[in-house]
Amino acid sequence: MIADVKRTPDYRFANLPGYAFAPHYFDALPGYEGLRVHYIDEGAKDARRTFLCLHGQPSWSYIYRKMIPVFSESGARVIAPDWLGFGRSDKPADDAAYTFNFHRNMMLALIRHLDLTNITLVVQDWGGVLGLTLPLEMPERFSRLIVMNTTLAVGTSPSPGFDAWKAFAASQPDMDVAALMKRASPNLSDAEAAAYSAPYPDISYKAGVRRFPQLVMVRPDMEGVDISRRAAAWWRKDWRGQSFMAVGAADPVLGPPVMELLRQQIKGCPEALVIPDGGHFVQEWGDVIAPAALKAFGDI
Fold it and tell me: How far apart are CA 106 and CA 24, in angstroms?
């Protein structure tokens, strides 16, 4: 049982621009009893397809606000969870609570709890570092992939840009999330940038934000390397679904070179849609990416 858990007050999420999604919570996931996990759940529960949208760091499900309506209007169900430590989910205050398996096992448990099937996996940043390892565990539940600015961490640094980002993040225990998002995505309004800070009233809520960059598996002895290597082999040899890749070309951390290597690891993945002015948080161009993905899949 985790003793010190922070829960962001609801008022922090009032009147966020472009975000009018009803919250959904579950606090009895096996192994995570007492920790409340938040997720957006839009569209019909009995829809034929489900889009599972996984965010990264330091963002939360707010980052999918431009994509969720496009997916749900196609007749699909859309699930966008917040990792523990982020968004409207509970936030253990101890940095040491956050590990690769802590997060991965939570998401596997949530997928089983919601009994999601025919999943289109939508990932970026840590959403991919973790999310790309999930289908290996339950391949029968996944049918399609939308992948954006991420990597499979298999024991080496993905790029010099990542090394610089990791060092910067380590120097910012009370990271100014709004300022970071504004620098990375200049198309954000001040109010949208501030919305990314909503989950974090003060430094005591930011343990997850601090930990994620340090957890990326840059050495072969780190937790998660073995499963990520197995996942890389699975995507290369065993994946049978449709894939769509979008790349924010202005990302210095996980930009075009990193994404081209990942594309080559995903069996049958076509050439990427490149967003020339898109940064690392390329979902901010989601009103372009989501329709393009649906068109490529033949949904529209």
Answer: 16
